[in-house]
Sequence to fold (117 residues):
Amino acid sequence: MQDRIQQQQRSKPALTDQSKPALTDERKRYGAMRAWASFLYAFGIISAVFAAVGAIILAVEVHNFWQALGVLLIGGPISVFLATLPIAISQSMNALADVAETVTGPDLGSSLGGPGL
Fold:
């Protein structure tokens, strides 16, 4: 009876930190995509800051109150929105890498002649 209990305990996987998925070869395959996504994210943040600062500077430089109001209420939000597009692209690249890692198993990637060789 004791032997049977010991065999059952050995066959059960232990729930430790080792059971969590680590940075494996499948996750490393899409490292270039994640690096470009990080670059685009940083570029988007910097672009948004510069677009906001540029809109404020332009609002100060115009000669008319109504032109300044138009720059702040119309031109400013449009320029900041367009400046944040790299952030949206970087999030989609990260999501694409996550989906590709989930769909591509370790056996499937290596059988297709991918980097798992």
Q: What stands out?
A: The chain has a mean pLDDT of 81. Helices lie at 2-11, 25-28, 31-61, 65-83, 85-103, 106-111. Residues 41-102 form one domain.
